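Exercise 7b. Backbone tokens:
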């Protein structure tokens, strides 16, 4: 999804680490939230992929104003589709969070390709086992230009504890719903790194999990330039 809208004010204060509670079963109920904008080529496959996992209780697709039938395709694939507040990716993620019915949230991108069995279980297992409250995915692909040229140098300087993460800008993440409700969702491309920084500053238990090979749609050079600006603004 291509975020739109202006960035929100910087994130509010985040409470300290959460104590292990709530879901401790090896098979927790999970709400999958997928923010989308004109993802008709891939969204139905992403929805069906998520619903194949027995841990998933629902898939919520948050449509940010698609004009290519994305919402209809997602609904036919089995998702519950809602219209976002039309403020961008971060706001769509927050909208989906408010609609989610289960205690564990898995955020996926709507343009994912090459999905294989296992990533959903891998992402939520540390939370269900009580070992983490926030999980970021890492996957096999060459680091993107924004990650290599913008995010990592700034993280090494300002947040060195996060510099070793393979995919700090990745949009695939899982977390407890009560944790996410206390975080600020930026509207633009800074939302994913902003959540990660907030979690680290709050000393919340988090891990990065290898989910194998994943592909996304490529972005134009102009989109990458705007992404770099928004990521840098969030980090700084």
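Sequence design result:
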């Amino acid at each position: 999804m291509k975020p739109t809208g202006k960035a929100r004010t910087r994130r509010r204060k985040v409470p300290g680490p959460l104590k292990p509670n709530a879901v401790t079963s090896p098979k927790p109920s999970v709400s999958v939230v997928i923010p989308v904008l004109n993802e008709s080529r891939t969204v139905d496959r992403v929805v069906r992929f998520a619903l194949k996992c027995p841990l998933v209780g629902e898939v919520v697709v948050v449509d940010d104003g698609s004009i290519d039938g994305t919402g209809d395709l997602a609904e036919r694939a089995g998702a519950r589709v809602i219209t976002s507040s039309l403020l961008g990716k971060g706001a769509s993620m927050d909208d989906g969070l408010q609609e989610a019915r289960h205690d564990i949230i898995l955020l996926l991108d709507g343009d994912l390709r090459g999905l294989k069995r296992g990533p959903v279980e891998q992402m939520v297992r540390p939370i269900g086992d009580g070992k983490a409250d926030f999980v970021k995915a890492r996957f096999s692909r060459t680091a993107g230009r924004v990650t290599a040229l913008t995010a990592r140098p700034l993280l090494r300087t300002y947040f060195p504890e996060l510099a070793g993460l393979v995919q700090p800008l990745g949009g695939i993440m899982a977390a407890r719903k009560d944790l996410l409700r206390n975080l600020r969702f930026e509207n633009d491309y800074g939302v994913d790194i902003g959540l990660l920084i907030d979690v680290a500053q709050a000393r919340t238990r988090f891990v990065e999990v290898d989910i194998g090979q994943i592909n996304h749609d490529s972005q134009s050079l102009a989109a990458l330039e705007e992404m770099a600006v928004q990521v840098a603004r969030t980090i700084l």
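Instructor comment: DSSP finds eight helices and seven strands in the chain. The radius of gyration is 16 Å.
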